[in-house]
Amino acid sequence: MTKVVAKICQVGGGKHVAFAGLLAATLLLSACGFHLKGMGDAATATYQSIKIVQNPGVRSDVAQALNQQLQAMGIKVVSNLADAELVLNLQATQMNTSITARDGKGDVSGELLKMIQPFNAQVVATEESVIQARAVAYRDRSVNAAQAQASSRELQSIQRQMASEVALQVLDRLNRAYALMHPAKQQEKKATDS
């Protein structure tokens, strides 16, 4: 690889040094097995069914995103606990807003939104704890007091995106924790997917 970079530098002179550096960095990252978080085998579900328990205060958009994502993964979301392999307990969703900027008049012009979704999961048959954690999503947004209606629609859209991100985090962490507890099921899942 270094020979290729050196050859590019010799042929192109000084103006191709930046390109050669970029090429070298790309080759190094691809050669070292670089993977994005959440893209590995552990992110796949090894369970077949789940019951979601929504405690008071859980945002409906978070619960809806979880249901949609589970169904897209081929996991049955059941209403009867006896039919579930896992139970996912969602505690009240927390939504915090911090002021990050003000305009010349002192009005709020920037906010940092933080959505926190505490959750835990257990194996139904054994009541064994799988995970207890919190999924967190952040968004920064500009606020324009003159366009309050558009700003309100933007806030709703941002909150839906955050709910979807939080739901993905919950499922990714649940899937990884359950796969670590049951490595045989993970191997079985790999074999059936191949």
UniProtKB/TrEMBL annotation:
Keywords: Cell outer membrane, Lipoprotein, Membrane, Palmitate, Signal. GO terms for molecular function: lipopolysaccharide binding. GO terms for cellular component: outer membrane; transporter complex. The keyword Cytoplasm does not apply. One of its GO terms (biological process) is Gram-negative-bacterium-type cell outer membrane assembly. InterPro entries: LPS_assembly_LptE. This is LPS-assembly lipoprotein LptE. It comes from Hydrogenovibrio marinus.
